Each structure stands twice: as C-alpha cells, then as structure tokens.
Amino acid sequence: MAPSLLPDIQTEADINTLLNTFYEKAGLDELLGPLFQADAQVHWPQPLVTMGAFWKRVLLNTDGQDGWPFPSNMALPNTGEYFQRWQQLFLAAVEENFTGPIAEAAKATAQEVARRFEYKRPPRPLLSFLKNGR
C-alpha cells in the first residue's frame, strides 16, 4: 500500500480548509442542510472565526479565545441522528484533506464533542477531555 500523499493538519490555513470542507458538505446534506441554510441568514464569518478558534486551540495549541465547535445560534436538534451525521461529515472532511497524528486528533475530538452534545452531559471545559484522556 502506497503511503498517503495527504499532509497533516499543521497551520491555521489547514484548519480553515477543514472547516470550509465540512461546512460545504453540511450545507448540501439532506439532514443537516436545512439547518445550515436556515442559519445562512446569520452572518457566518463570525461563527466560522469562533469555531476556527476552537479547532486551532485544540489541534495547534494556539493562544487566544477558546472558541466553540458549533455556531452558538444554530438550532441543532439534540438527537442522535443529527450529531451522528455532523460527526460523519466532519470525519469525512478530515479524511479527504489530511492524514497524520493531528488529523487523528481532530477526528477523536469531533467524536468526543458529538458524544458530549448528544447525551447532554453537564458543561465542562472542552479542552479538559484532551488533557485528561476522557
């Protein structure tokens, strides 16, 4: 098997590529698309900056705001099918663009984020599960 030619996630530009790929997929998705299209009335640049800050901090250990992995104003139903689909699309966006340890960390983080939101667990700093391995 030939080694992958895809790079690992290493820069803020890589995070932007990941988010743009994911949100393009989500916007066209049969299940999530209507939610994302409804939120198109909201100014997307700021939510993307906030979400980017989360992923940059988690994956690249950057300083600055913590951010949040979802648009704060998005009415994403808190049911399994929505978060499973969010997770599937996010993992696909990672796998289409990146490979390596940081890409694997992005996938693991997305799975943990989806799991936490889906089960409505009490809020906890999102970075703590990376530090504690839980």
From TrEMBL:
Coiled coil: none
Molecular function GO labels: heme binding; oxygen binding
Record flagged with keyword Transmembrane helix: no
Keyword set, alphabetical order: Plasmid
Protein name stated in the entry: Group III truncated hemoglobin
Keyword Flavoprotein (UniProt): no
Organism listed in the record: Hymenobacter swuensis DY53
